[in-house]
Amino acid sequence: MTVDLGTIRRLVELTVDGEQVRVPEGSTILDACRAQDIETPTLCYAPNLTPVNACRVCVVELEGARTLVPSCARPVEDGMVVHTDSERVRHSRKMVLELLDSSVDLSQSGEDVDRWKDQYGVDAGRYGPPAAPAAAGERDARHAGHHEIPDGSTAATVAQPVKEDNDLYVRDYGRCIMCYKCVEACGTDAQNTFAIAVAGRGFDTRITTEFAVELPDSACVYCGNCIGVCPTGALKSVSEHELREAGQWDPDDETVTTTICSFCGVGCNLELHVQHNQIVNVTSPTDHSVTHGHLCIKGRFGFQHVQNLPEGS
Amino acid sequence: MDLKFLEAVPTQGEQAAVDGLVGAPGEGDDPRFAAGGQHARDLRHLLLPALHAVSDTAGWISQGALNYICQRLSVPPAEAYGVATFYAMFSLSPRAPRVAHVCDDIVCARLGGSDIADELAATLGPAGSGQVVTWLRSPCLGLCERAPAAMVQLAGDTDQAIAPATADGVRTAVAGTGNGHVPAGGSQPSVSAPQTRRGDGQRLRLLRRIGVVDPDSLDSYRSVGGYAGLRRAIAVGPGRVIQEVSDSKLMGRGGAAFPTGVKWDAVAKAPVRPHYLICNADESEPGTFKDRVLMEDDPFALIEAMTIAGYATGCEQGYLYIRGEYPLATRRLQAAIEQARHRSLLGSDVMGAGFGFDIELRRGAGAYICGEETALMNSLEGYRGEPRNKPPFPTVSGLFGKPTVINNVETLFNVLDILTEGGPAFAQTGTERSTGTKLFCLCGAVAEPGLYEVPFGATLRELLELAGGSTGSLRAILLGGAAGSFVDPEALDVALTFEGMREIGASLGSGVIMPVDDGTDMPGMLRRIAAFFRDESCGQCVPCRVGTVRQEESLARLANGTEIGSRAREFALLDDLTRVMRDSSICGLGHTAPAAVQSAISLNLLERGDPE
Ligand SMILES: Cc1cc2nc3c(=O)[nH]c(=O)nc-3n(C[C@H](O)[C@H](O)[C@H](O)COP(=O)(O)O)c2cc1C
Ligand code: SF4
Ligand code: SF4
Ligand code: SF4
Ligand code: FES
Ligand code: FES
Questions:
Q1: Which one, A164, B370, B521, B610, has the greatest CB density within 10 A?
Q2: What's the pLDDT tens digit per position in A129-170?
Q3: Interface residue A115 vs chain B (CB under 8 A)
Q4: Are A147 and B550 in contact (CB < 8 Å)?
């Protein structure tokens, strides 16, 4: 984040869980919660992207509002009275997580999600056994306004085969929670390439290229910024995917080394993620003033030469 | 923007269709690059009309056609694909150029729609099959008073609604008679609005010109007092118009019951310019057909009312967003707009009074959610019809980010009488809090379905009697459409007012009154409602995107007797889903998607022993 030293922002005073909180004008309720060290689950929110407030896991109860409000997007106002742990809030958070868990593979969504599932008492099994995965391309071909009428014996999911159509990254949309982050990163929030968009409607929405063409035929420039923001492992580098498939993915061994990209003069910070002496991923810190977490194809994927050590060394 | 396009090229017909909308490409443009920079990007709002142009010509949208649209409008192909796949009326894979959409929604299904679907399946093959002619199931087509309904969508020809429909009639229309041309069907005002032929002393306001005025003739409209409202508006000035509307206590008829005067005042005073006006004619709530009847049989009244609204709130441009499945209303409104322009009742100097106002008619393409005001704005701008987060509200930041007035068709119709009679006089009709008259769509198990107008304060019983009573023995009444709720026959004496509805925890919604008799398959009806919301959810937020799916699955188990655990557990599950959808969905679709189901459960309409 850039630090704006020029303007002094007015402080807004509100009540969060009975405590008076003062935060700068323009902050969100989420900012206020974080200032109080109140843990608030988020999925579609990211500090370096425009809020889409789509997932609704961050909802809080705002006195005077008929419905709950998304804390990640709602700016604070003087005198607001917010409850972050009421029965309604806990119910909605549990249900959002449970609905996702019952329809999407969340197994690579990280420890936070695992902990929230426990904390809110998610029981995805109560919707019945998951339906069989869709065949390749089937979900891409669904037509808005039409669906097969279910008999309820299984719970519909977004499970489908992984899309592997290029050398750099895979798209495993059975893990996609439709958080819009990748679309934002590919669009005006970072890359301005617009290779991917949300298509379809309702439960059949999906992230796709035009006519679901393969990535090499699309506008994709392989900056990997979509991978950088994907919270669920739906988008990941081929290196990570292959290691995971081979059962050799070993996060416990992972070390992260920060360096500066040597390809050009911009000065992007790189974080080299290394497992067993191999670079497995490259990221950039979201709070870095140059990159805001985003990179280009060279910084993100151009690490192979670093590892091309002479034979026997 | 540096856009990359696919290699595919359009056919001549597809290209001509797009050029017909945006003009021929400039000399020497390299078709591989988007031409026109900033100017072309300003054309994004033409995306939906361009998709329609191609679909109307070719019956589907090919890669070449989408590519060409993207080049001309400077839209990234992935985004345009995302927009096109949002709408049910478009196909992005080859589809037969002649399609019959057969309504199997809650009214039609019982009144022959399901039989038509079965017969077409037997004769034309499964839904969606067929190279030249095909058929598809459709949600409510807004013709419920003449159920069962169908609509034929014909590439290169005029679309046509058929109601009441028969399997034979649909087959003839879709397969093409003789020269392959389908004669444009008319409206049936005396059937659709039975009061107009009764002369039973009911003083009709909103319906009084229905069946009287010639919908194709401006002169006819003027001969029955048309344009008196606009004349008075110009005579008294914008400030006074807003005062009259405020004094009338007119509440919006689109479902949210927001005071119209407050909305108009906010936009009129907004310093940011330009201001925009939108008439919401997306009417897609199952069971609703009121706006269609008004637009088909009295189109000039809407044009006049929009002009008054535009004048009062300082808008020079109005958009009339009509659902794509209303071909007759679309044709009549388009003709009315052209006649009004021709007589300077629209244009740069309306009535010679020194103000400019014009109307652009925009067709939706099969998406109930585009009736939600902010989704509608996204749709108009060429984006996916996803509701926006509020605040900010449209009066502050609406269409193209500018202050925007958006009103329902029926709301605007009321403005005419408010102007000619004066606001306080208008407020004399009805009750203290619900002023004027209200249109109700009676359909389903009722003797004489149709559109009825009564002063606010009439009871549910009175409305049912107006329509000849229910057929069969009355079990419940669905109020407000699929997004509404079932009420018990014991509530027949409740007044149909905004306040009366609040008292019984119901809502007037879009004015649907749908009696359900004991012959109705309740689990089937609820499953159809659940399927509707599952299809129409925009998919943005988790509670609605997944919640509507889980709701439909649970209802299927309840209907089939394959509950997980017990019926009580299924009801608890449905209750959990209801709470998250109501509390945490982004928009009204998610908030109301479980309403009918919940009310049915609390009235024990799903008890075992139902005729299934
Ligand atoms: C899912 C959904 C669908 C809607 N559909 C319509 C519609 O078809 N027509 C309409 O006038 N309002 C519809 N509305 C209400 C509009 O959002 C808005 O409140 C209305 O157009 C305002 O006009 P009014 O003040 O004249 O009622 C819908 C709302 C929701 C949530
Ligand atoms: S790699 Fe970059 S260009 Fe390709 S889809 Fe992801 S964000 Fe867009
Ligand atoms: S692919 Fe990842 S970033 Fe993109 S919408 Fe799905 S979960 Fe979000
Ligand atoms: S409630 Fe449903 S229709 Fe409304 S924004 Fe959410 S997903 Fe879309
Ligand atoms: S994190 Fe706030 S809505 Fe998703
Ligand atoms: S037209 Fe069939 S239910 Fe309305």
A1: B370
A2: 999 999 999 999 999 999 999 999 999 999 999 999 999 999
A3: no
A4: no
